[in-house]
Design goal:
The complex is a heterodimer of chains A (118) and B (285). Chain A folds into 2 domains: 68 residues, Alpha-Beta Complex (Molybdopterin biosynthesis moea protein, domain 2); 50 residues. Chain A has 4 helices and 4 strands, in the order E-E-E-H-E-H-H-H. In chain A, 49% of the residues lie in helices and 11% in strands. In chain A, helix 3 crosses helix 4. Chain B is built from 15 helices and no strands. Chain B is globular and about 55 Å long.
Amino acid sequence: MGLVELSLVNPGMVLAKSVYSHSGVILLKDGRTLGEKDLLLLEAWGVTEVDIQGTDGTQGKEQVLSEILSEEELSALDAKLDKKFSKQQENEVIIELKKVIRKIKIEEIVERKKQKNG
Amino acid sequence: MDKDTLWKKIKRMNELSTLPEVYTKIVGLIDDPKTSAATLASVISRDQVLTAKLLRIANSPFYRSSPEKITSITFAVAILGFNATKNLVLSASLFDLFHDFEEGFKDTVRGVWEHSIACAVGSRIIAQYTRYKQPEEMFVTGLLHDIGKIVELQFMPEKFREIVKLANDTGMLIGEAEEEILGYTHSYVGKLLGRHWGLSPQIVDSIELHHTPETANEFKKQVFIVHIADVLSHSLDLGGKDDKIPLLNIAAWESLELKTDTIEALLQEFKREWKDAVAFLFPTK
């Protein structure tokens, strides 16, 4: 199991852990096979990621991602990011910043593709 | 253009003159201890265009000067206080500066403008994260940090184009390319303009030192906030086409006591608010 961003979750995936609202109310119980309506509910509640069965942490995320983004697209993105950060010194803040920017850029690409595909 | 000529031109320029007029008058009032809130409000209210603009901005989704809807200038002055009103007038006056440019430079100006909005929004968010007492002052400081580029675009558009080209071709930062071509940078030009306008010293310092925060002296916190906001705006590609991020000064980051694990939340908020701000100011986009 592993955390998967909501934008990457598809109907048919199974929750590995229950999803709670901020106030601690269970929104969806573990073991539930997610349907379209469940995804809308999670989105409406501001849930950004859920634990999905059969995925494995960040690796799981890349696996799901790889269906959307090709190797070439990912390495083009990484090359761009390396250039972008070329003036920076290596430190904890820059490493984290680069990681977050990479995540946001991937989200943007996924978002654009989704819009394109209607 | 050498530094002397530049300074003379800045002092003589008319294009940017709307700002000092309104702003200087209001700052004069605010600095006078005899001025009451009612006097200040009545002076501003006499200028209907400014009033409309102030109310529009005060209630905009990104300026967020108050949780309540501000419906009159009297209310604005009462609820925001003198300083925040001053910053609001400054922000409102600035929004005009970026609109009148010749064809051919509109995209470049728009890029600088969008980046400035990003830095403004980012500075305000960082101010809140670091409990800086006047977030709206940081908003306007962020908005102004690259004003030197606007001056360069007005006085020497072709040179500015050369600078951008040199930076793109060689991998230099804009500031490095400016040093090469002009012998000074937009930070220096911005400082001159800020002084000419009579902006507060913390704003002038933040404009001048946003790329060299290690040289900040009296107004470290303000300079650091703008510096970090600038770096983060470039990281997120918010406005302008720039493929390199200026060097992050780690001492500035540490001094603000920003936590590494808040980067993601901060950037997401930053991006969202920037989008709102741009949509508000450029409704067609």
